[in-house]
Amino acid sequence: MDESDQEQPTDDMSGLLVSVGLNRDVEAFEVLFRHYAPRVKAYMARLSRDGAVAEELMQETMMVVWNKAAQFEPSRGNVSTWIYTIARNVRIDVYRRTKRPEFDLSDPAFVPDDAEPADKAFEQLQDAERLHRAMEALPAEQLDLLKRSFYEDSSHSAIAEALSIPLGTVKSRIRLAFAKLRAALEER
Amino acid sequence: MSIRHHVSDELLLRYASGELAEGWSLAVATHLALCPASRRRLAQMETVGGALLENIAAGTASDDAWARMRSRIERGATGVPQRPEGHVKAAAEPVLPEPLRSYLGGDIDSLKWRSLGMGAYQIPIALGDDSTVARLLRIPAGKPVPEHGHAGQELTVVLAGSFRDGSDVFARGDIEEADANLTHQPLASEDADCICLAVTDAPLRFKSWLVRLIQPVLGI
Predict the structure, then answer these.
(1) Considering only CB atoms, which chain A residues are within 8 Å of B35?
(2) Partner residue opposite B128 with nearest CB, options A83, A98, A105
(3) pLDDT tens, A4-33?
């Protein structure tokens, strides 16, 4: 086994994904695959607990990453966020076979963000870094709730039951966690 | 006009994590189409999802897994890479944003409203999953609603006109989340009919205040 699964700076991943989109760069995609495929599989395994199913869902996700790489806009977010949203959608479409309605940026009724000037791009990348750091500073029980919310596909009332805490506590911890994360973004 | 009533963190997180059922998601996505501030919060939550994915305990990719992926992309590698969609602004602005417009098959002027009596109309919205019930409602201007509580959850997104609930006014793009604990006294504003998307828990007993308004008329 080589060492390509070790932590890579986000900028590198972004450059690799752009190259996949522009040049159909198989070597770049292999680096991305070796880094993200195990993570996506672990994410899927939290849901299905069946290794073969998790492997299939991972393959589907990475296929979409390959096919849609040209749609990745490095100025609008980082690679892990982009791949997360694809994995989430594969999980809903392929595994759960349900729909998740989404807004459409090209819809004439869509209300664009006026407060998104051109220099916002750099800010958004900084935001991602700030968010990552702020998450590390969250109290353990708040981080745990975020993980359960994102990984386990269970409702907040199911999470409350699993943790033997009131639903209101789950909701207030979520609000507290995001209040802290947003406060971290406002420190400029 | 900017949105005053935004989706809550709890509900938005369920949408960001993909846990939310189709009917609730339809209401949240319709609100998001009209509310840049809520979309910024969604983007932050998805960044949190990405950070958790980055840090998830994972093994290494097997060479078999990569070999399989590689053969798949080489078989299909001649395909044209997909380009980002253009964000074209059309001249006409529909009243109903996506994804709601597609669910209804057209914009507001092409809809076949069904009378509920007392000047109120509805259109049931077909969903692929039966845990929720969604409908578009049109309530006559100035109609008062008796004070009531909720047996379950209800989401209401205003598309046209407005309604007043206590000291709060809900207008286009605003979302109201009501749960079993809430007792309120909504009132459609006087200036125009109020058109809104209402999503409730599935039991056939109507819970929407807007439907309760006309329930006595229907005898249901």
Answers:
(1) 111
(2) A98
(3) 444 445 568 999 999 999 999 999 999 999
Max Cα–Cα distance, chain A, nearest Å: 52
Identity of the residue in B53, B69, B91 whose CB atom sits nearest the CB atom of A39? B53
- Please report residues of B whose CB lies closer than 8 A to that of A113: 36, 39-40
Instruction: Judge: B33–A111 Cβ closer than 8 Å, yes or no.
Output: yes
Enumerate the domain spans of chain A: 1-101, 136-188
Q: Are B19 and A155 in contact (CB under 8 A)?
A: yes
pTM exceeding 0.90: no
Could you read off the pLDDT of B45-63 as tens digits, one per residue? Answer: 999 999 999 999 888 888 8
Domains and their CATH numbers in chain B? 1-80+97-220 (2.60.120.10)
Neighbours of B191 (CB within 10 A): 10
ipTM of model: 0.90
What dotted CATH number matches A136-188? 1.10.10.10
On chain A, the residues whose CB falls within 8 A of the CB of B56 are: 39, 42-43, 151
Decide: helix, strand or coil at residue A46: helix
Topology given in CATH for the domain delimited by A1-101:
Rna Polymerase Sigma Factor; Chain: A (1.10.1740)
Please say whether the beta carbons of B34 and B173 come within 8 A.
yes
